[in-house]
């Protein structure tokens, strides 16, 4: 994967506001890379291309990414003209599954207390990360219709949980906590109702946690977890959960940390080509207006640099976003008036000037 210090990045803006936020993330990424050698290669995959010629994820894409790239930066997939969401399933879920990106890391960190919707909460209260299992669960696409369209229709959707899959994400969460000297890991499931699939989560969690005696290992059912996140998010440092629950919990966490437009994520297989993207989608309701918040995409580029081991550069990106928030250089989502490119410019310039002191 590593070709000296050089990093090869594939860029897939995708649909809707993906096409507005990714150019800003690229701007910032270039400013932060400084003297480091990065190459950027654009891919026009998304709804336009799909509607034009049917392309979703080309047959050789997975092999190409493994061979020719170190990381992928993606905007969002989803377009009202493609109600089946076929291209998103093929491209986004396809890459997560076929590249075996089993860790979906979604930090929920409040950078500035004025942006949380919670009363009397500050930065120290919202500082956790959700690890979402990213390669199985209800997302595997197993199921089908029987007697479709009739009054007797049956639709099934299988929830696939493997011991190997559950164990590796739970272990990753504990390792992450141990490496950062964090003291709390919370596993969330719905084992009171899903008595087979999530019973496996229970048993694996109880087994793995014995290897981390210094870490307080808690469990919460997903319904209560979401309540507790809103009631008192300071309880949480590391949350680990299944694919669907992680999807939901990370939107809630993004809301607590200021907004969906601020939230980054990494789809990671340690040591292999990995994919970084904002948590949000293509936001058709605001697409084309250049008012989207690019900070989630920008912070996703920061997570990519962190993944490369470029810690100082990643920190520079984070600090420049913090500066933009502090100085009110924010979009409509955060009750500001700056347009998407103006925010990207501010953050890139802050980095170039070296003025992003913490
Ligand atoms: P969404 O995340 O696109 O939008 C939800 C709400 O948040 C909307 O009100 C939107 O305007 C707002 N929002 C999102 N990102 C924002 C930003 N950067 N700045 C300001 N406001 C922002 O979710 P949705 O509306 O449920 O889905 C729209 C489409 O996106 C669907 O096709 C969905 O499947 C897809 N989607 C894709 C991804 C992805 O590619 N990773 C993630 C989520 C949704
Ligand atoms: C996300 C999105 C996707 C998901 C959709 C677009 C399939 O909501 O990345 O959070 O559910 O994983
Ligand atoms: Mn989601």
List the strand order in the largest sheet: 2-1-3-12-11-4-5-10-8-9
What would the principal axes of the Cα set say about the shape? Answer: globular
What is the first-to-last residue Cα distance?
32 Å
Order of helices and strands: EHEHHEHEEEEHEHEHEHEEHHH
Rg, please?
20 Å
Q: Find the count of extended strands (DSSP E, 2+ residues).
A: 12
Which stretches of 5+ consecutive residues score pLDDT under 50?
A: none
| Structural class based on helices, strands and sheet pairing | alpha/beta
- Integer average pLDDT: 97
Task: Characterise the protein shown here.
- This protein has 358 residues and is of the alpha/beta class.
- Helices cover 39% and strands 19% of the residues.
- It contains eleven helices and twelve strands.
- The strands form two sheets. It has a ten-stranded mixed beta sheet, sandwiched between helices. It has a two-stranded antiparallel ribbon with strand order 6-7.
- It is globular.
- Bound molecules: nicotinamide-adenine-dinucleotide (NAD), 3-isopropylmalic acid and manganese (II) ion.
- Nicotinamide-adenine-dinucleotide binds at residues 17, 21, 76-78, 85, 88, 92, 260-261, 277, 280-286, 292-293, 296, 333.
What brief labels describe this structure?
39% helix; single chain; binds nicotinamide-adenine-dinucleotide; binds 3-isopropylmalic acid; alpha/beta; globular
Explain the layout of strands and helices.
Blueprint: E1 7-14, H1 18-33, E2 38-42, H2 47-53, H3 61-68, E3 71-76, H4 86-98, E4 103-109, E5 127-133, E6 143-146, E7 154-157, H5 163-179, E8 184-189, H6 197-209, E9 216-221, H7 222-231, E10 238-241, H8 243-256, E11 264-268, E12 274-278, H9 295-308, H10 311-326, H11 340-352
Parallel strand pairs: 1-2, 1-3, 3-12, 5-10, 8-9, 8-10
Antiparallel strand pairs: 4-5, 4-11, 6-7, 11-12
Helix pairs in contact: 1-9, 1-10, 1-11, 5-6, 7-8, 9-10, 10-11
The structure holds nicotinamide-adenine-dinucleotide, 3-isopropylmalic acid and manganese (II) ion.
């Amino acid at each position: 994967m590593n070709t000296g210090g050089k990093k090869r990045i594939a860029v897939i803006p995708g649909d809707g506001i993906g096409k507005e936020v990714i150019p800003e993330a690229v701007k910032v990424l270039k400013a932060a890379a400084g003297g480091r050698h990065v190459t950027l290669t654009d891919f026009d995959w998304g709804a336009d291309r799909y509607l034009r010629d049917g392309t979703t994820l080309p047959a050789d894409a997975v092999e190409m990414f493994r061979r020719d790239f170190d990381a992928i930066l993606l905007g969002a997939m989803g377009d009202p003209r493609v109600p089946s969401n076929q291209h998103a399933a093929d491209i986004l879920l396809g890459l997560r599954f076929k590249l075996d990106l089993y860790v979906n890391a979604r930090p929920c960190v409040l950078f500035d207390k004025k942006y949380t919707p919670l009363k009397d909460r500050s930065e120290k209260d919202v500082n956790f990360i959700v690890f979402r299992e990213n390669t199985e669960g209800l997302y595997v696409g197993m199921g089908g219709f029987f007697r479709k369209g009739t009054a007797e229709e049956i639709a099934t959707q299988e929830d696939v949980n493997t011991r190997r899959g559950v164990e590796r994400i739970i272990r990753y969460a504990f390792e992450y906590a141990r490496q950062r000297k964090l003291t709390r890991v919370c596993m969330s499931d719905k084992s009171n109702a899903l008595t087979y699939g999530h019973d496996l989560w229970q048993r694996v969690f109880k087994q793995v946690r014995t290897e981390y005696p210094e870490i307080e290992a808690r469990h919460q059912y997903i319904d209560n977890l979401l309540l507790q996140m809103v009631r008192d998010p300071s309880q949480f440092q590391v949350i680990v959960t299944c694919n669907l629950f992680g999807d939901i919990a990370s939107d809630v966490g993004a809301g607590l940390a200021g907004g969906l437009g601020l939230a980054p994520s990494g789809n990671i297989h340690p040591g292999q080509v990995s994919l970084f993207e904002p948590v949000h989608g293509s936001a058709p309701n605001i697409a084309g207006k250049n008012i989207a918040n690019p900070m989630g995409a920008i912070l996703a580029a920061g997570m990519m640099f962190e993944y490369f081991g470029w810690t100082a550069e990643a920190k520079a990106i984070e600090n420049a976003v913090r500066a933009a928030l502090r100085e009110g250089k924010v979009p409509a989502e955060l009750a500001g008036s700056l347009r998407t490119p103006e925010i990207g410019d501010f953050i890139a310039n802050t980095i170039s000037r070296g003025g992003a002191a913490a």
